[in-house]
Amino acid sequence: MHISAPTGRRRACAAVAAVVICATAPAVPGLATADGTRAPSASAPKLDWSPCVKGSPYDCATAQVPLDHGDPTGRSIDLAVVKRKATGPGRRIGTLFFNPGGPGGPGTVQMPQNYAFFPREVRERFDIVSWDPRGIGSSTAVNCFPSTAEAEKWTTTKTTGVPVGEKERAAWITAYRELGERCRQRDPELLRHVSTTDTARDLELLRKAVGDARLTYLGISYGTYLGATYANLFPDTVRAMVLDSNWDPRAWTNDASEAAARLATMLRLGSDRGAAAVLDEFLRLCGAATSARCPFSAGSPQETREKFDALLSRLKTDPVGAYGYGRTVGDAVSGLYSVLPGWSELAGRLQDLWQGRVPRQPALPPELAVPDPSPYLGEEQAVAVMCGDSPNPRDPGAYPAMEEASAARAGDAGRYWTWATVACATWPGVAQDSYRGPWDRRTAHPVLVVGTTNDPATPFSGARAMARELADARLLTHEGYGHTALVNPSSCVQAHESRYLVDGTLPPEGTTCRQDRPPFSANEPQGAVSAGEGGAAGILLSRP
What we know:
By secondary structure, this protein is of the alpha/beta class. The protein contains 17 helices and 11 strands.
């Protein structure tokens, strides 16, 4: 259950090679609690930056923050923080904080991995800072196993992707019940304090630590919900905020209802229908392309769809190596996130399976110049945030019926997204501090909401909902495919983001941008604006 793309090999966390300095900076004013009262003041951590590793362009530090922001003198935890300094001599504006989504995305890995996707002017004008949120990666992490070997052994007790049939479903439920019990025994206090609200309070302390008067922020996917939470807890300190590929905050919180959730989180968000629609587009565009550009093409959209359905049907009874129906569906959905080169690579894997070959795994990304480029990212980390934060049905027996209902509206993708949160049915931790709205507290400056029209994880309806819920937001439509405009770029979107982050200029209301490189097409950008130049080529529609 993890929405972010994988970051590399899993292994136990190593210590971050940065100096930890006790909090000595001036105290942050009393923080507003979820019920609107004031919590005791916490001190902003001092960040002692040093090169992450010798010769690295990135600097690292470790921040100490309270485990419980309501008890700042109690137990403290560590946050691993990474920074890339602004590249434009004498042109620095301040710090851009970046959250890569998830929940569970380690910023100390994913910011360096995605650094080249940030618009050039943004890289020139801002230090870009990210961090592993509490509970994740190289920060004080939720880790419910004594060793990596034990964690890997647990992983083998269930199938990958989607469970098929009563036996596999029972194995999933048993595995996640065991995971919850392991985590409860290991550090139950931490489980209560890894909420989005806790992380938003950490972000406020980090803002103070870098010395910025107001926050400049880019959040993608789950990071949009984190941004919305921050904006409503600390509305007066928002300088600029870009939310890319949005979660509907009301759907995430089950509309702040006190009643038991009847639908799983990802189904409330509409991820099942969004993924189904994008999968249809993948097969349509693949079928319209030659096999040289889309290896899975059967010569027409209809024949390619039929080929895909036939492949899944065959894999239910005749798997190819470890690739059965469930793993292939999971691979298909997650393979839609990145158009280039992800869609062509997915088509190649499907064609391998069609021909009875075990697909070759994509190459791991190159090692990064950071202390721990492959931190332990066990499932329990994303689960701890998701299940502690967002209501889900507590009866595991409800999931098969939900699966069938979702499959009726979203096909195979519905089965995948239904089971993505089954761990929450038996999860022992509930967030102690969880902001659930309202979402319309007026921020010091407006928020820029970016939504991609064909997103397999966060449907465009989420961007519309976020723009509607926030008190002062502007929606920028990215007409394209994939999960996040950041990694499926449009020079038009980048130009608008750059202008907004640098000087606060919003795109005209109703602006729509086109993706630079459509799937399965010649690799020639459609837009004519270089990142950060401030032009407007690629805009399809701008209404007054």
